[in-house]
Amino acid sequence: MKCVLCREGDTDPGKVTVTLERGGAVIVIKEVPAEVCGNCGEYYLTEEITRKVLHLAETSIKKGVEVEVIRFAA
Q1: How would you class 51 by CB atoms within 10 Å of its CB: exposed for 0-12, middle for 13-18, buried for 19 or more?
Q2: Which of 27, 39, 71, 73 has the smallest CB count inside 10 Å?
Q3: For residue 40, what pLDDT is reported?
Q4: How far is CA 31 from the centre of its chain?
Q5: Which CATH architecture group holds 11-71?
């Protein structure tokens, strides 16, 4: 697909690190499958992957963590 941010690059399957912040907590999720722009590096997650990432982050928040690094497992 064509990148909607830079409008020049095409995306290819890859893995990214997603960092989310909420209420003073920082959750880092590594090796998340995504479509990554070869030109600018912008990434796009599918709805299913987004749901899983948000679920992982919510679980961490409920545990009361301030900083957590998680490896994504499909």
Answers
A1: exposed
A2: 73
A3: 96
A4: 8
A5: Roll (3.10)
Strands (E), the chain: 11-22, 25-37, 43-44, 67-71
Q: Where are the domains of the chain?
A: 11-71
Place of tokens 């959750």: 27
Q: Give the pair of three-digit tokens for residue 7.
A: 């409008």
The CA-based angle 74-34-48, given to 5 degrees, is 50
Residue identified by tokens 């948000």 is 54
Q: How many CB atoms lie under 10 A from the CB of residue 27?
A: 23
Q: Which residue has the tokens 């960092």?
A: 19
- Residues written for the chain: 74
